[in-house]
């Protein structure tokens, strides 16, 4: 899974015109001020003009990596008419404001005040919030369809699922196979188990790395229903147990070793069916969801 945080930058207050004469600019010859992200990054401009009836203020982003998500605007006939505290404008108190769905352009049309004369001077305070679209959130997970071998890439932000591989070798030999999918991000390998017999004492472990077919990595003990990848190793709870296994690999992706690192880790002798497990990489904490085997006694304290 890859995640990147949205970069949100506040545009500094731009006082457009200091001062700006009411009838000084037209649509074909607007007053123009730079739209700066932070203090120095020019991402567009603010244009101001009027047609004798209305005043127009246009925010325009001309850098394709950026877009507008909020704008705030104040128009006054003196600097004292701009809401401020200790000389710093307060955008939240501006008369005109809006929230936007990552757009490149926003236009405000404001009726000219009847008290304003042709030679009056206006002050326009323009403020915006922009997002850097090259840093938008991305969250990708992978899934395998049991009984078919279809591998999917799921974009949980864009709400799309894309078939990336149809694993026909090994052919699914069981309605619960393939299973135990886990992603080795360091090597770009998707590991999964495949088996026919639900009572098998060991199963084959494969990986797919974008090639034309899955590659047999080796065999591991028991049935693997849920797995995760952490710290360079494949981890799973052997089905119908509460025994945690670790699988290490050679450089070519083949199995180097597979062994139990914790047995009966719930402290309950009854069996479990762990369907999903995951490790928090920051704390090395294992989380899992499980059903108990039929007739088993519910555990206490877990």
Structure, explained:
A hairpin with a 5-residue loop joins β12 (140-144) and β13 (150-155). This protein is mainly beta and 302 residues long. The protein is elongated, with a radius of gyration of 31 Å. The model is unreliable at 1-19 (pLDDT under 50). The strands form 7 sheets. Strands 1, 2, 6, 9 and 11 form a 5-stranded antiparallel β-sheet that branches. A 4-stranded antiparallel β-sheet has the order 3-4-5-10, with no helix packed on it. A 4-stranded antiparallel β-sheet has the order 15-16-17-18, with no helix packed on it. The chain has 2 domains: 7-135, Immunoglobulin-like (Sandwich); 140-292, Neuraminidase (6 Propeller), CATH 2.120.10. It contains no helices and 24 strands.
Keywords:
elongated; 302 residues; Neuraminidase; four-stranded antiparallel β-sheet; 55% strand; mainly beta
- Structural class by SSE content: mainly beta
Number of self-contained structural domains: 2
What percentage of the residues does DSSP assign to strands (E)? over 45%
What is the distance, rounded to the nearest whole angstrom, between the alpha carbons of the first and last residues?
Answer: 28 Å
The CATH H-level homologous superfamily of the largest domain:
TolB, C-terminal domain
Specify the overall morphology. elongated
Radius of gyration: 31 Å
Query: What do we call the CATH topology of the largest domain?
Result: Neuraminidase
Q: Note the total helix count.
A: 0
SSE order, one letter for each helix or strand: EEEEEEEEEEEEEEEEEEEEEEEE
Give a count of the beta strands, DSSP E runs of length 2 or more: 24
At the first level of CATH, what is the class of the largest domain?
A: Mainly Beta
Identify the quaternary structure here. single chain
**Overall pLDDT, averaged?**
81
Low-pLDDT regions:
1-19
Gross CATH architecture of the largest domain: 6 Propeller
Main pleated-sheet profile? 5 strands, antiparallel
